[in-house]
Please model this.
Amino acid sequence: QVQLAESGGVSVQAGGSLRLSCVASKYARHNCMGWFRQAPGKEREGVASIYSVGGTALYADSVKGRFTISQDNDKKVVYLQMNSLKPEDTATYYCAADSLDCTGNWYDKATYWGQGTQVTVSS
Model:
């Protein structure tokens, strides 16, 4: 069993930056890891995902050019660098891992989810 622990969520003003981290409790080869978010009253939205092998990253249109996902060499940590934050980025951000692929609603197919970290962006 792998546990995921997110951190880095805080309250910031619009235009600011944050970096979220997701640490896995142990090394495991996850084909796809990434981040999704959910705001109150809204559907889950995949934000960014990355293939463990090759490092190809995919992004939601709403965050392209502002967010960057990365992973460290031993694949135990996945980061989400968030720049130029907007109020509509306010949500709970979850890390997910071990999805077969990084397309579509990959997070719904992921084996492991973290508990989430809250990001609040004020205007």
Summary: The first strand starts at residue 4 and ends at 7.
